[in-house]
Every structure is written in structure tokens, then in C-alpha cells.
């Protein structure tokens, strides 16, 4: 079986395109305020082996560094992962637990979006997004949006803020997406550890290259 490097053709990181949509609905009345700060917890011991030095190769840990779009001759990185989630359950059950927290906030599963892929080191292949959610199905006026993959019980989440869908869709902030996820899971009594894992994947306009770790266990 070919290696990851035989699949991937490196190119500049980008995330552009256009999508159609309808007006973004306001968040539900009981939605978590994403503008505050969370009380940082110590990273759980489950990630201790990944906090000492940057992760620079996706074959070194069950954590993605980027998600990708297919091209004519491979895959191109489009956005950096910035949240790592550790649910108590593994596999699909754990992923559903994570998504249920977002659904309780009024987020919508499988919204209108581009399809992206992440590298699975076990199968040595790019895997289609496994779970996604956003504040609105379409994002004409903008929205927060996440894509998730679960590898070895560890969920890699890409969180960002979408710009209005027209005239040109873009990502004005990764930080605000990450801040929103931190606030939501903190409000759901999960353990939130900002800036816990260095993924060495900084990207404009505002991603600093590190990921927040969120754990379900107290």
C-alpha cells in the first residue's frame, strides 16, 4: 500500500469557494455565549505523550493536523485542526456524544458544506468527514461550523467561522470557531484545556498552530 506522501501533493493552504444559502437564523435563546473565557483545566493524562513537543507528522499520533480536499493528482490541505476531543466512549458512540452537545445548542447536523477528508494512519488512506455541524444549514450571513473525525477514540475537530456565503465564501476566523467550541463544552461541564497540543499548523488569518483539548471525564 502506498504511503501518505505518495497520495499528497503539497500546495498552498486555502479554503475558497462559493455556496448558496438562506438567511442565518439567530441562535436559540439558551445558546452558550461564545464571547467569554473558560477556566482552563490541566490537559488529561491521556494526551500527555502529545504535549511535550509539536506534532509535525500525521503518522505520529491519532490526531489530524489538517483536513484536505481532493485534487486531480492527490489531496491538498485546506484547514488546520484546532480542537481535540476525548469522549468516554470510543468510535461512533463517542462521536455521537460529542455531536449531541452541539445539537443541544441548536446546531444542525450535516449542513450545506464542502466535503473534506483527513488522513487515517491505520488504513493509510484519506477518510471522508465523519460528522459535521453548524449553527445554520446554510450560511448566507455567516456561521460557526465544525468537521470531525474519530481515530483510535480521539476526535480531531476543525472549528471555524464561515463568512457570508456570497459574494465569496471564506474563513475569517479559526480562533472564534475554537472559542465557541470551548465555551459550549465548558458550559456542558466537559474539561477544557486550551493551547494543550502544538500541531505546528498555524494558518492565516488567526490560527496559532495549537489545539484545545476537551475531555468528557471530570
Description of the structure:
- The chain is an alpha+beta fold.
- It has one domain.
- It is built from 3 helices and 11 strands.
- A 7-stranded mixed β-sheet has the order 4-7-8-9-3-11-10. Strands 1-2 form a two-stranded antiparallel sheet. Strands 5-6 form a two-stranded antiparallel sheet.
- A hairpin with a 2-residue loop joins strand 1 and strand 2.
- The chain is globular and about 45 Å long.
- About 8% of the residues have low confidence.
Structure characteristics:
globular; 14% helix; alpha+beta; 3 helices; seven-stranded mixed β-sheet; 29% strand; 218 residues; two-stranded antiparallel sheet
Question: Strands, helices and their partners?
Answer:
Blueprint: H1 4-7, E1 66-71, E2 74-80, E3 83-86, H2 91-104, E4 108-109, E5 117-120, E6 125-128, E7 131-134, E8 143-151, E9 154-162, H3 175-187, E10 191-198, E11 210-215
Parallel strand pairs: 3-11
Antiparallel strand pairs: 1-2, 3-9, 4-7, 5-6, 7-8, 8-9, 10-11
Amino acid at each position: 500500500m502506498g504511503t501518505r506522501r505518495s497520495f499528497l501533493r503539497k500546495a498552498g493552504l486555502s479554503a475558497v469557494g462559493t455556496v448558496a444559502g438562506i438567511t442565518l437564523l439567530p441562535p436559540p435563546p439558551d445558546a452558550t455565549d461564545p464571547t467569554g473565557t473558560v477556566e482552563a483545566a490541566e490537559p488529561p493524562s491521556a494526551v500527555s505523550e502529545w504535549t511535550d513537543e509539536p506534532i509535525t507528522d500525521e503518522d505520529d499520533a491519532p490526531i489530524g493536523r489538517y483536513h484536505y480536499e481532493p485534487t486531480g493528482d492527490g489531496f491538498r490541505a485546506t484547514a488546520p485542526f484546532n480542537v481535540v476531543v476525548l469522549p468516554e466512549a470510543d468510535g461512533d458512540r463517542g462521536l455521537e456524544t460529542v455531536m449531541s452537545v452541539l445539537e443541544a445548542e441548536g446546531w444542525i447536523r450535516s449542513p450545506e458544506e464542502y466535503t473534506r477528508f483527513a488522513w487515517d494512519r491505520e488504513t493509510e488512506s484519506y477518510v471522508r468527514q465523519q460528522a459535521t455541524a453548524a449553527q445554520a444549514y446554510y450560511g448566507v450571513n455567516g456561521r460557526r461550523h465544525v468537521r470531525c473525525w474519530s481515530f483510535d477514540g480521539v476526535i480531531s475537530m476543525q472549528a471555524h467561522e464561515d463568512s457570508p456565503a456570497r459574494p465569496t465564501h471564506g474563513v475569517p476566523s479559526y480562533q472564534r470557531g475554537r472559542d465557541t467550541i470551548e465555551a459550549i463544552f465548558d458550559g456542558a461541564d466537559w474539561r477544557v484545556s486550551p493551547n494543550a497540543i502544538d500541531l505546528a499548523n498555524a494558518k492565516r488569518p488567526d490560527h496559532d498552530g495549537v489545539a484545545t483539548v476537551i475531555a468528557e471525564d471530570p
